[in-house]
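User: My advisor, Dr. K., asked me to get a structural model of this assembly before our group meeting. I'm new to this, so sorry if the format is off. These are the inputs:
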Amino acid sequence: MSDAIDPDRSGAGARHALSRRKDYGSEILNESDAAADPFAQFDRWLADADARGVYEPNAMVLGTVDGDGVPSSRTVLLRGFDERGFVFYTDRRSRKGVALAVHPTATLLFPWYAIHRQVIVTGRAVEVDDAESDAYWATRPYGSRIAATASRQSQPIASRAELESRVAELEQAYPEAGEVRRPETWGGYRVGPERVEFWQGRTSRLHDRLVYTRSRDGGAVGAWGIQRLQP
Ligand SMILES: Cc1cc2nc3c(=O)[nH]c(=O)nc-3n(C[C@H](O)[C@H](O)[C@H](O)COP(=O)(O)O)c2cc1C
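Assistant: The format is fine. Below is the predicted structure of the whole assembly, which you can bring to the meeting.
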């Protein structure tokens, strides 16, 4: 550990980030106020995060597990959600795409630290169909389309210059945004939740945690139930 991050040796004492203690606010998350399903509850909290200035409130940490059981995580952007699940877009040949092909189970974590909240979605990721991926691709600006086409995400490359020259070639070949078609390997995943946890920071670490899980009745998907967990 370097001096810079060792509170004992840095002399920074309580001012140091690692020893800072913040008492969280007065907000509460009660069973009686919680929405009947996690999508409605998420909708409320996403709107709050946005209204209260959380930077990139739709940024979420996607966790996957590969074929060797090795977990990995990275940030992706939520591009839509409804009762079917939470959607993000990526290169399906990427490290995450390869992991999801073997283990389609994923977690999505929304780290809304600034408002003392966290949401964790766990579920099964399925590929979004071509029509839906095309519709989203059509909203992407020219530069993003070129970049997604030029990059074979997660693979090594010898230099930045090589990537930039690929971009320049594509820009020459396809000068108009409409000409840059969605690569077949690029598209969306929808994580259909089995479990959604809402965490509300409270004073003295006595936080609120409500978990929505689907009841299962002989295999058929039932209504959402809510359970409180100890903090
Ligand atoms: C704020 C933020 C948003 C990002 N959004 C996306 C995204 O929507 N899709 C994506 O493929 N990568 C996104 N990335 C990049 C990923 O975090 C990651 O580097 C990339 O997807 C490769 O991940 P992998 O090698 O684990 O597959 C984002 C990164 C940040 C910091």
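One thing worth pointing out at the meeting: Confidence is low (pLDDT under 50) at residues 1-11.

User: Perfect, thanks a lot.
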